[in-house]
Amino acid sequence: MASxxxxxxxxxxxFITTDSLHSILSHQTLIDHFxxxxxxxSSSLCSPIRQSYAVSPTSSLLLMPSWSSSPSLPYxxxxxxxxxxxxLPGIHGSYVLFSSTxxxxxxxxxxxxxxxxxxxxxSGLASRILSRNDSEVLVMIGAGALAPHLIRAHLAARPxxxxxxxxxxxxxxxxxxxxxxxxxxxxxxVEFESNGSLDEAVAMGDIVSCATNSEVALxxxxxxxxxxxxxxxxxxxxxxxxxxxxxxRRGRVFVDNEAAxxxxxxxxxxxxRGVIGKGDVCGMLxxxxxxxxxxxxxxxxxxxxxxxxxxxxxxxAAQLVYETYMKQ
Length: 328
Fold this sequence. Notes:
By secondary structure, this protein is an alpha/beta fold. It folds into 2 domains: about 15-115 and about 310-325, ornithine cyclodeaminase, domain 1, CATH 3.30.1780.10; about 120-310, 3-Layer(aba) Sandwich (Rossmann fold), CATH 3.40.50. About 35% of the residues lie in helices and about 25% in strands. It has 11 helices and 15 strands. The chain has helices at about 20-25, 25-40, 110-130, 145-155, 170-185, 200-205, 245-250, 260-265, 265-270, 285-290, 310-325; strands at about 15, 45, 50-55, 60-70, 75-85, 90-100, 105-110, 135-140, 165, 190-195, 205-210, 230, 250-255, 285, 300-305. It has an 8-stranded parallel beta sheet, with helices on both faces. Strands 1, 2, 3, 4, 5, 6 and 7 form a 7-stranded mixed beta sheet that branches.
């Protein structure tokens, strides 16, 4: 989306409420925005490595900046995240968008909600490219704040999905999420259910999406059905992993960006154990979109997509929110 808004004149910064953000964004429109924008603006974006500062023995402040040199994306953005794990919820975020031509503040918005949308939509976009066109069963592992977004993103990417099976360590949470989704999108002909058997659920999934902080492998590669697509979202530290080595060995592995190669526990561990090498990773999301790397090559192969997030998709999501808001 090329920017049509002038940021050269002095204006009052806007505060975009969380309700407004929800009314502006849909998983379909954000997936489409990423699909069209990532190949054209990625090379013009500078996104330094995420900075983390300890503010106490248990709490930290994280900064994720990104800015563009492209006239079509005249923005500089920073996501500020606080991590206070002793509180519930333990993560809070704000996103501040500036003009990259004048430096003035343009908008502030809910960084937590923005992150939920952009994370899910990155997975949705990868699924659009890597999962089978005839996928019918989505298995959602985890029932936290990200799970409903991931479900909606996968449904947007694969409207042929007919059944969603939810598993969570606490089964009552899986049942509650199934009921919530049944009430909000069940009218579209999609069946929602929970399943207390993880192995049984995984074996049924055409798409298996994981959003947990597990440090024990949940998805066993031997349980993945032929032609499945495995979407790994949760791990961002070496101690975390949502699948075992067999899942990595059986699948063609793709990542959202290079940071996944040094941050994701599933991949770092697989590299260390010689399961695969870094050179065996088949490509990044932007390469898939642009056709530089081949995605799914057959109906039988298993694909694996691992994401850890980036400031690039933050600023693109913020762009869509801001420009849509200003046109209302």
